Amino acid sequence: xxxxxxxxxxxxxxxxxxxxxxxxxxxxxxxxxxxxxxxxxxxxxxxxxxxxxxxxxxxxxxxxxxxxxxxxxxxxxxxxxxxxxxxxxxxxxxxxxxxxxxxxxxxxxxxxxxxxxxxxxxxxxxxxxxxxxxxxxxxxxxxxxxxxxxxxxxxxxxxxxxxxxxxxxxxxxxxxxxxxxxxxxxxxxxxxxxxxxxxxxxxxxxxxxxxxxxxxxxxxxxxxxxxxxxxxxxxxxxxxxxxxxxxxxxxxxxxxxxxxxxxxxxxxxxxxxxxxxxxxxxxxxxxxxxxxxxxxxxxxxxxxxxxxxxxxxxxxxxxxxxxxxxxxxxxxxxxxxxxxxxxxxxxxxxxxxxxxxxxxxxxxxxxxxxxxxxxxxxxxxxxxxxxxxxxxxxxxxxxxxxxxxxxxxxxxxxxxxxxxxxxxxxxxxxxxxxxxxxxxxxxxxxxxxxxxxxxxxxxxxxxxxxxxxxxxxxxxxxxxxxxxxxxxxxxxxxxxxxxxxxxxxxxxxxxxxxxxxxxxxxxxxxxxxxxxxxxxxxxxxxxxxxxxxxxxxxxxxxxxxxxxxxxxxxxxxxxxxxxxxxxxxxxxxxxxxxxxxxxxxxxx
Length: 604
Fold this sequence. Notes:
Layout: H1 6-15, H2 19-26, H3 29-36, H4 40-52, E1 70-72, H5 81-87, E2 95-97, E3 120-122, H6 131-137, E4 145-147, H7 155-160, E5 169-171, H8 179-184, E6 193-195, H9 203-206, E7 217-219, E8 236-238, E9 243-244, E10 260-262, E11 267-268, E12 285-287, E13 307-309, H10 320-324, E14 332-334, H11 342-348, E15 357-359, H12 367-376, E16 382-384, E17 393-394, E18 404-405, E19 418-422, H13 428-436, E20 443-447, H14 453-459, E21 467-471, H15 477-481, E22 491-493, H16 502-511, E23 516-518, H17 567-574, H18 593-596
Parallel strand pairs: 1-2, 2-3, 3-4, 4-5, 5-6, 6-7, 7-8, 8-10, 9-11, 10-12, 12-13, 13-14, 14-15, 15-16, 16-19, 19-20, 20-21, 21-22, 22-23
Antiparallel strand pairs: 17-18
């Protein structure tokens, strides 16, 4: 992706500074001509800025119809027929994301008919899109990627997709896809990605999947499929929550190209040999979390593993030997809620030189495990030690020996960026001094009853923090009022800090509007989080924006004419039930993609 120069970035910032700024350049014919000729990457960037600042409204899309190629409106509750009328005129539109836009239904998709440039369309969780909406999409000759999971499309609608011959990605998750559907869509020979989780497909239908010669991704989670499809081209297979008979020697040649296998929550009927392979496995990603596996000897054949999730299984110290011999390439390891102890971590020590992410939450490890990790896992970037027996102190030998601060050892992890600590045993004195030395931290989460204002202020002064969570602590209004966040801080979570008052939280949110604050009393305070205006504002002088609410719907009709619409059709759309006011937006629901991407700091 091409980058903006500093000067271009400043110009764009000025162009979307306020409603008044937008109204000024909308009124200048020369400015509009220049905007319509913007290179696609700059047009996309300007539109994203307007979207983030909630300054985008339907008629403003008119100036982007020749230059924007990618439009991401996911989660925007205001997108309706008027918006779609303008979007339908985007002659160079390549990708359109309307997922979670709950006002979108089958009729509102009509403006997209015949849009030859459109290759990617995401309608996930638009529950009002039905089979009639699919009929509108059949006129998109070059569509390559289509997401319609959790919509209102039925078995009959799925069969219609067979005419979209160029599809390489098809997401039908949560739809009533049947074995007959898989038979009808075999014409999609270019298909590389097929998602049919939660469908009615059985082993009979899964056997047809081998007829997709280019298929590399397949999701069969939450289905009645019990046998792995015989598809040699597969690189990624999801069978979470399935009852699996076996993935064993008979499948070794079939799964020769498999790189990623996700079996979270699956049930194995023949546990002792469930995951044994004839030869060394090519898997680099394996997730068997939340399964009933008892035998982990299969790990010995997986020498290429980079990501392994064993959380919520019976994995214990006795099985660590299987893991220790294949850990050379391991980058991510999740042992949360397993039976591993400090002794097991000791066995693992020195075997994972390249490990970057380690989760040991809800295990019985103690402070000595911190020493093992700090001394033998130098590449750790993300570490989850929540709900363990770590107390922050290690008692030394001798009657007069002072206790050692165990967390002080973490300073040797020079790559550490994210740390999560949660323990009723942790005292404030065990946290303050050790954590202050971790200047490279960008994400810090602490849950303890003993943390006070002083420690809060000192920990939040870490220079690179982007996200800080202080949960269930005894912070006071005075402490929050005197808190001065670092410039890098973007998110602050204070949930469970019960001494903070609603008024104090409200004042703090207004004082630092750029911060996303979470608390039981917090409200959506930033204009970035408000819904987009549903309709275009009337043509009024720019100065009057100071007196009128720009988010109010205009009483006028559309502000321009479309090739696809006559005047009578537009007026009919305006007066249709589609123009009813949108339902209230849920508090705390963030619809902007960039904000969503900065959600939880610990996606372990």
